[in-house]
Amino acid sequence: MDYTEKLKDLLTTTAKQNASDLHIAVGRRPTLRVDGVLVPFAKEEIVTPESAEGLISALITKEQKEKLMAERQLDFAYSFEDKARFRVNAYYQRGYLAAALRLISSRVRTIDELGLPPIVHDFAKLSQGFVLVVGPAGHGKSTTLAAVLDEINHTRGDHIITIEDPIEYLFTQDRGIISQREVGGDTLTFDDGLRTLLRQDPDVVMIGEMRDYRSIATAMTAAETGHLVFSTLHTNSAAQTIDRIIDSFPAEQQGQVISQLSATLVAIVSQRLLPKIDGGRVPAMEIMIVNPAIRNLIRERKIYQIDLVIETSLQEGMITLNRSMANLIKEKQISLENAELYSVNPSELRILLERM
């Protein structure tokens, strides 16, 4: 079998179907994720160990294959004939090769095109501070950040540096200079890229993902020294994010971290992509803007009270995830059943709907 041609067919279909992901795993047919739902290719044969290796080998270079075999997993980006770009994770499961390919739009969509709240435009106007976009994997964090960075690129003469593993969206430089650094190619390790970051004269920094307390410390220091810093975390809410950041540091450093965080944090956006009633997906978002009340709660480590401040600060542009979902239900964009699946407090969501 010509695995290069087979791979080409699969990637073409993935792009045409506007699927978010393509999965290749032994024992089942190649499978797409469309609007959050897994859909197997009905006409494709079940993937065998041989075909999995053939398809994945068609994606990677000899050097990448050696690294995959040595480390048992590999993150990389793959450009498909100028038609589409994929973020790929190849890995072993039960001794067999498998891969998950995330389709990345060839064009960076704007904040308005993504249906994000108007207040997200304000993040592109900031001169310094720390902004986090959080949520589960596959719920649009990178897409939201790309939209904000591209707005900065088109409206400000700033130097934007990204450290990504791998590079996802490709930006076309406009008023700004954009330096996109990929781990493994442009910097040997994530830590190396972070360590030299501030020597490269950035105005705006985007750290693809904060993986440990060292990357969090670098992000906060950059924000503290007059830079605008964006990053992501796999957390479910603003309050959980703050707890996660503090708890990732050794106990003796947590006091200093709380002080830094209360001084530098500007906003946390927690988002979910929910299936729309008429097809496609729509973002539901919790937005926390750091005001004096939240700054005090962080300093006093009364993180559990933050949700109440968000709920009572609608006039400042804040919104809870449940209220965002309730608005989408009222607008008949999403169903109550789907909203309850994604809500961290479904009973509160139902009470909110009754009051609206």
UniProtKB/TrEMBL annotation:
<dbReference type="InterPro" id="IPR001482">
    <property type="entry name" value="T2SS/T4SS_dom"/>
</dbReference>
<dbReference type="GO" id="GO:0016887">
    <property type="term" value="F:ATP hydrolysis activity"/>
</dbReference>
<dbReference type="InterPro" id="IPR027417">
    <property type="entry name" value="P-loop_NTPase"/>
</dbReference>
<dbReference type="GO" id="GO:0005524">
    <property type="term" value="F:ATP binding"/>
</dbReference>
<protein>
    <submittedName>
        <fullName>Type IV pili twitching motility protein PilT</fullName>
    </submittedName>
</protein>
<feature type="domain" description="Bacterial type II secretion system protein E">
    <location>
        <begin position="198"/>
        <end position="212"/>
    </location>
</feature>
<dbReference type="InterPro" id="IPR050921">
    <property type="entry name" value="T4SS_GSP_E_ATPase"/>
</dbReference>
<dbReference type="InterPro" id="IPR006321">
    <property type="entry name" value="PilT/PilU"/>
</dbReference>
<comment type="similarity">
    <text>Belongs to the GSP E family.</text>
</comment>
<dbReference type="Pfam" id="PF00437">
    <property type="entry name" value="T2SSE"/>
</dbReference>
